[in-house]
Structures are given as C-alpha cells and as structure tokens.
Design a protein that fits this description.
Strand content of chain B: under 5%
Strand content of chain A: under 5%
CATH topology of chain A: Four Helix Bundle (Hemerythrin (Met), subunit A)
Helix content of chain A: over 70%
Order of helices and strands of chain B: H
Structural class of chain B: mainly alpha
Shape of chain A: globular
Number of helices of chain A: 8
Largest sheet of chain A: none
Helix content of chain B: over 70%
Distance between the termini of chain B: 124 Å
Largest interface: A-B, 35 and 26 residues
Radius of gyration of chain B: 38 Å
Oligomer: heterodimer
Shape of chain B: rod-shaped
Chain lengths: 260, 88
C-alpha cells in the first residue's frame, strides 16, 4: 500500500477573492510610494486647478467672475466632504468588525480632513452666496444639513480626543457615532430635490450636466486636485495618529515596567 | 446682484489657501510633539535597559560569590555537625 496521500485539488479562489487580490496587487505599490506620489500629484493638480479656475475657464454670463468659486466649492463638498466621511464610516465599520485600533486612527484622520473640507464648503458657499443671493447664510435645507454634518463630526472628534489613542471602548462608541452621522450625507445630497431651497439644484451630477464642456474640463481637474489633496492629508494624519498610538503603548509599557 | 464681485472670488480662494496652510502648520506641530515624545521614550527605554543591566550584573556577582563560599561553608557545617553528633 502506498504511503503517499492522494492529491488534494487546490481550492480555487472565488471571484471576490481574485478581485481583492488583483486590487491589492494594483494598489499596494502605489500605497508604498504615497509619500512621493501624493505631494507631487497634489501640487501639480492644485496649480492646474488654480490656473484653470482663474484664467482658463470661461466667465459665466449671469454670475460673473464669482462663479469661479464653483471649482473650489463643488469638489470640496463632494470629494472633500462626502468621501472623507465615507472613509471615516468604512474605517469605523472595519474597526468594529476587526477590533484593530489602527482603523480607528484612519477613521479619525479622515474625519479631521472631512471637517476641514466641510468648513471650506460652508465658507466658499457663503462667500459665493453673498453677491448672488444678497446674504451670506440662509437656513435652507442644504446649508443647514451641511452645518449639522459639521457639528456631528466635530462632536465625534471632540468625544474621541477626550479618551486616549488606544482606548478601545471610546473608539467603539465613537465608531458607532460616526456610522450614524454618515446618514446625514444622503440627506444633504437629496435635500435640494426633497425641499424647496435657496441653494440651486444639482447641475453637475446629472445625466446631462448643465455646464459647457470647457467648464466641465476645469471642474474635472479640480475634482482630481481635491481628491489627491484629500488622500494626502488623510495619509499624513492617519500616519501621525498611528504613531501617537504606538508611542502611547510604549509609554504604558515603560510605566508598567517602572512600577514593577 | 453685484457686478463682477472680484473681491468675493479673491476672498473665497484666500479662505481656502489660508485654511489649508493653517491645517498643515497644526499638523506639523502635532508631528513635532510626537517626535519629542518618541525621543523621551527612547531615553527612558535606554535608562531602563541600563538599570536592568546593572541590576543583572549585581545579581550575577552576588550569585557567583555565593557559589564560591557555599561549598566551604557547607563542608565546615558538615564537619561541625558530624563532630557534635560523635560527641553526643
């Protein structure tokens, strides 16, 4: 009788696993070079956005030059705010499932950047609104729900900063808070459809955008610039938060060792 | 509606760039604090390791001294014990 075991056929990876492996292989080399790629790409695209917005884009006939604020306001709102808080929500969900505290650092980093971009969105919107509407602020649905979003994630950051960077219980509670807070984003996005607002209807994210191609091209450059800026800021903050977690663990270890 | 409104355009871009600059400065300050914390921890770790080394050396020295004296003491003790038991 032969001692060798029969050949067991290798389990074929599922489509999802294959896709995950493919994505990981594609993203990992880019991620490892993030400190070279992100600042360079951000710098180039931000300059291109500035030149495009101020010089290259055509002047809007009705609103005049102030309409050029659209190239800052719209990407800050959609990419900077929505995607940063999406990353916060996803990282919070992964933290709740895996209990890996590093995901809490990613969530906090994305929330910080999201709050920054929400402030930019509200500020540029108010400055744009003054010559067009005659007021800086109006309590309409879009503006108010965006302000509520800012308050939600500011409260999240405040609550999280009270506890230490490795406090798992605080991280768990704030992760749930971040996930619930994300529900405000669909409300913001569809507020202009559901309620009558001073804020204009969506003109970009439609099947047929209501702006000329020259403006759309500059807007695309602005979207890319804000995307790279957001990713760079999140990467910077996330790494610094993870470093803070490691130093905190090291300090606790040395304190315990000193006490013993 | 105000015509042109270039000052508003300038104000909008200024707010964005100033905010970004302030955020980066704050981030730099935070990173510097963490670097200082790392340096302090490194010092503490080095001190702790030095203390452990001197403590370890002291322990090994006392053990070696004990090892060198113990057999003689034991033999003396044995001799005394045997003599006293014989006397008895």
């Amino acid at each position: 009788m032969s001692a060798t075991s029969p050949d067991i056929p290798e389990a074929r990876p599922s489509r999802l696993q294959a896709l995950f492996t493919f994505l990981l292989r594609a993203v990992l080399p880019v991620y490892q070079r993030r400190w070279v790629l992100l600042p360079a790409l951000t710098g180039v695209m931000m300059m291109a956005m500035l030149v495009g917005a101020v010089l290259a884009a055509p002047r809007e006939v009705v609103e005049g030059d102030v309409q050029r604020l659209m190239y800052l306001h719209v990407p800050s709102a959609t990419i900077g705010t929505y995607f940063s808080f999406l990353i916060t929500a996803v990282a919070s969900a992964i933290f709740l499932m895996s209990r890996d505290i590093r995901w809490d650092a990613v969530a906090r980093a994305a929330a910080t950047v999201g709050v920054l971009f929400t402030i930019f969105t509200l500020a540029t919107g108010a400055i744009w609104g003054k010559p067009i509407w005659g007021v800086y602020w109006s309590w309409d649905a879009r503006l108010t729900s965006t302000l509520v979003l800012l308050l939600i994630y500011t409260a999240y950051l405040l609550a999280r900063s009270v506890a230490g960077p490795n406090d798992e219980q605080a991280a768990r509670y704030t992760a749930i808070f971040a996930l619930v807070g994300f529900l405000d984003i669909p409300l913001i996005h569809f507020s202009v459809d559901w309620w009558r607002t001073l804020h204009p209807q969506r003109i970009i994210f439609n099947t047929r955008p209501a702006v000329p191609n020259e403006m759309l091209f500059v807007l695309l450059v602005a979207f890319l610039a804000i995307t790279f800026l957001m990713l760079w800021l999140i990467a910077l903050r996330s790494d610094s938060e993870q470093l803070a977690q490691r130093t905190d663990r090291m300090r606790m270890y040395l304190d315990q060792r000193g006490n013993n | 509606m105000e015509e042109n409104a270039l000052e508003f355009l300038f104000a909008g871009f200024a707010v964005f760039w100033a905010g970004l600059f302030i955020y980066l400065v704050l981030l730099q300050i935070r990173l510097r604090d963490i670097q200082q914390e790392v340096a302090t921890l490194e010092e503490r770790l080095t001190e702790s390791e030095n203390t452990d080394t001197s403590y370890g050396e002291a322990i090994s020295t006392s053990e070696s001294t004990a090892d060198s004296t113990t057999p003689n003491e034991l033999s003396k003790r044995d001799t005394t014990t045997n003599a006293s038991s014989r006397d008895a």
